[in-house]
Specification:
This protein is an alpha+beta fold and 771 residues long. The protein is built from 24 helices and 28 strands. The strands form 6 sheets. An 8-stranded mixed beta barrel has the order 19-20-22-23-24-25-26-27, surrounded by 4 helices.
Length: 771
Amino acid sequence: MGNSLKHRIIMLCVGLVLLTTVTSLVSFWWSTSHFNESQVQQDIEVGQNVYQQYLKAKERLLVTAATVLTADFGFKQAVATRDADTISSVLFNHSQRIDADLMLLFDTRGELISANQNDIKLSSETSKSMQQVLAQGNSSIFMVIGDKLYQVIVLPVKAPRTIAYSMVGFVIDTATAAELKELTGMEISFIAHHTGLKATTIADHPEHLSLLEYIDSQIVNRWFSEDPVYLSTEVQLPGLEDNPISVVLSADLSEHYKEFDTLVLTVISLSFGTIILGFITSGILANNLTTPIQQLTVMAKQFAKGNYKASIAESRPSQEVCELVDAFQEMGEDIQTREKKIRFQARHDNLTGFYNRTAALDLLSRQLNEEQSFYVVALDIKGLRHINDKLGPRVGDSCIQAVAQRIKETTQGINGFNARVGGDEFLSVIAVNPEMTMQQSIAQLQTSLNKQYVIQKLEISLHFSIGVVCYPEQAQTPEDMIRRALIAVDTAAQDGHEVYFYQNGEDEAHLERLEIIDELKQALQLDDGQLFMAYQPKLNINSGQVDKVEALIRWQRSNGDWVSPELFIDLAEQSGLIVELTQWVVRTVVAQVGVWLREGLTMKAAINVSAQDIADSAFLPHLEDMLATHDVPAKLITIELTERDMIENEERGIAALKALKALGVMISLDDYGVGQTSLGRLKMLPIDELKLDKVFILKLNESHQDQCIVQSTISLGHQLGFSVVSEGVENSESLTLLKQMRCDYAQGYHLSRPLPAKEFINWLGSYHEVV
C-alpha cells in the first residue's frame, strides 16, 4: 500500500480492530480453556462423590442384608445342624430378596459351607481374605472372587458364639460401571492391580494395552497442538492387601473440545467479519476525509497556475472541510492580491510608480516590434545629492516624485513610457512626432522640467542633464538604447551640457573604458608587473639635494599599450576600485622606502590619495600596518590630497587628516591655487605643505602675473608655517626665480621625468655627482 493519508487511516482502523480482535480472541481462548479445565475438574469431583455415594448405598444394603441373614433364628439353627438344604434354600431366597449376586457361608475355619452359586471358585487364600474383610467391621470391601469383582461384607453368625461367617456381595461388572456412568457422566473403570481390568465403560479398548496406557494414548489434533481425549483420576477402593482395587474416572473431553472449537470458530468468524466491516468502514471514513483533501490539493495546484477561482465539488462537505475550503479561497485571494502587488513592484519603482530598468528593457523590446521611430531620453537631476545633504532625504524623495509627475504630465498622450533607472536618473521613450524635430521635442520636455517646483512649501529650482538616443539610427537593441542614453546623459553632466545627443562611436569608447576597468581589477589581483610605481625627484632648493620624491603609478597593459594615469585613476574612482588601487600603491611605496633605508638611502616619498581613500575606514590601519611591516618611520611618508578632495567632505576630511598627523605622516595640499580653498579654510587644515599647481609654474619666467601669484603664495605659506613645493618646473630660469622667491622644493621635467625605482637610483647618483 502507498503512503497516502487514506491508506494510513485504513491501516490504523483495521490495525486497531485487528489488535482488539486478536486480544479478545486470545483472552477468550485463555479464559475459556481455564474455565473448561476447571469445569472438567469439578465434574470429576462431582462424579467421584456420586460413585462414592452409590457404593455407600450398596454397602448399607449389604450390611442390612447380612444383618438380617445372620439374625434369622431358623438360619442359625440350620447352620448349627449343618442342614445343607435349609442353608442353601435360605441363602438363595435371601439373595433373591435383596438382589445380591453373592451369598456365601463359611465355617469358622474358612471352609465354604454353602453358596448361592454352584460354580463359584474360591482361592486357597479365602480364609486369610476373610480375616481382612472381618477386620473392616461393618464396612464393605472390594475383592476378586472367581475372576469377578465384588463389593462384599462379612458378618459372623452367632448362636450365641460364632458358629459361621456369612459373606454377602454385589458383583461389580460392566453394567455397574454403565450405571455409574449414567449417574456421573464419566467413563468408569474398575481395575484389580494384579488381575487386571474388571469392568469399564470405555469401548474399543485393545487387549494389548492396559487401560491406563490406552487412556494416555488417546489424543486429538486440534488447531496447532495435540490434546488428550481423556482427563482421568484414579481412586483407591477398600480392598485386599494382595490385590488392591481402584476405580478410574475418565472425563471424555471430546465434546468439550468440539464445543470449544465451535465457539472459537464462531469468534474467529465474527472477528473476520468485524475486520472486514472495519476495513469497509475505515475505507468510507478515509474516503470522506481524503476526497476533500485531494480536491483541495487540486485546488492548490490551480492556485499555483494562477486560477484563484477554483473550488471543490464536494456534495456533502463537513463543517471542517467547509472552513478549510473557505480558508483556501481566502488564501487564494490574498495570494492573488500579493501577487499583483509583487508583479507591480517587480516592474515598477516604489517611489514614483514608473517602470524599473527590467520592465523598461521588456517594453523597449515590444516597441521594436512595432517598427516605429522613437527617442530614448535619459534625464539626470543635477545636485540632488546636495539637496539630500542640506534639506534631508524626505525633501530629496519629494523632488524625485515631483520630477516624475512633471515628466508624466509632459509625455502624456505620447506613444511611449517612462521609467526610473537609478537614484536620480529617469528614462522616457517618446515616439517621433513628424511635425516636430528631435531638438524641438526635447526642448519642449526641457522647458517643462525647468519650471520651478514647490516641494513641502519650498520653491526649488531643479536643473537637469539630458541625453538622447534616436531609434533606429543610433541603436537597435533595448540594451544598447539604454546604455547609450545613459552614456549621453553622463557626457552632458560631465561636460556641463543641458542636453547632449548621442554621437556614434561613444558607446565603443564606453565599452573600452569598462574593459580597462576589468583589466585593472585583474592587474591588481595578479600583481604581475603591469602596474608599477615611478618616482619623480623633488629638489630641496635650500640644500640643493634631492631628499623627496613623488610616487606616481604607471600601467602598461599586457598587450603592451600604455594607459594614461588620469584615465585609469578616474575610472577607478568611478568604479570603486580606487581604494584597492591606493592600498596597492601604499603597500608598494612603503616597501620601496624600506628597501632604500636598508640600502642606506633616506628618501621621503609622497603618495597621492583621493577623497574615497580618506573616507575609507581601512586606509589609516592599512598605512599603519605597512609602516610597521617594513619598519619605515611615518615622517618619511607624505600624503597628498587635492583641494577638490578636501572640499567634498571637509569635516570628515579634516578628521582623517588629524588622524594621519597623529600617526606622524606629512600632509600636503596638492594643486593649490586652482581650487576653491579660501584663506579661512586654509588655516583650519592640519597640513604641512602647499603644492603650487603647475599652471603657475610652467611659464613662470615669462609671466609677471604668475610670478606675483607664486611669490605671494610662498610668503603666505611660510607665514602659516607650511613648506611650499612648486611642480611643473620646465627650465632653469623658472628654477632660478623659485630660488629667489625662497621656495622650498621644486619638481618638474627640468630635473627629471618620473622614473622606475632602479632608474631613479641611477639618476640620483649621476645628479649628485654633477652637483
